[in-house]
Specification:
The protein is mainly alpha-helical. It is 66% helix and 0% strand.
Length: 147
């Protein structure tokens, strides 16, 4: 397993010996990263960076404190405005989707004119066939009224 960044920095700074990381002896990639890290650290150490004014940290702390104090109310208003900008189109889309769903469901649930109406019309137009003659020999069930 390769050395992580913290382990490489510890070895490069000398707070950890190379012997404590036996992986360095067998891994070319980790040795290359360690060499690059040491070169970068020596280059950075070559530059003389002046120490800031003693008042710098006090002024920086005060400026950060002021920005944080001013940002809290403004931030909540910005968040509310952002939510309003997002919710208005979303609510319009939801309303349109609801309308489309209602229209489509009413068309699906409404009886269609061709489903039952055509069968009833065909039944009404078809004449009834005469009943077949009786084979029992009886002419009718009604008493005969004759002369």
């Amino acid at each position: 397993m390769h050395l992580n960044a913290v382990e490489l920095i510890d070895v490069a700074e000398g707070t950890r010996s190379e012997a404590s990381a036996p992986h360095l002896a067998s891994c070319d990639e980790c040795r290359r990263q360690l060499t690059d890290l040491r070169a970068m650290m020596s280059t950075a150490a070559a530059f003389d960076v002046p120490e800031p004014s003693p008042l710098f940290w006090d002024h920086l702390s005060e400026r950060v404190r002021n920005v944080v104090a001013q940002d809290v109310p403004g931030r909540s208003l910005q968040d509310a405005a952002t939510w309003r900008r997002l919710l208005m189109p979303l609510s319009a889309v939801a309303a349109a989707s609801l309308i489309v769903a209602v229209v489509l469901s009413s068309r699906v649930l409404a009886p269609q004119s061709g489903a039952h109406g055509d069968a009833e019309k065909v039944a009404l137009r078809t004449p009834l066939a005469p009943a077949p003659p009786s084979t029992t020999g009886a002419a009718t069930d009604e008493p005969h009224r004759g002369s």
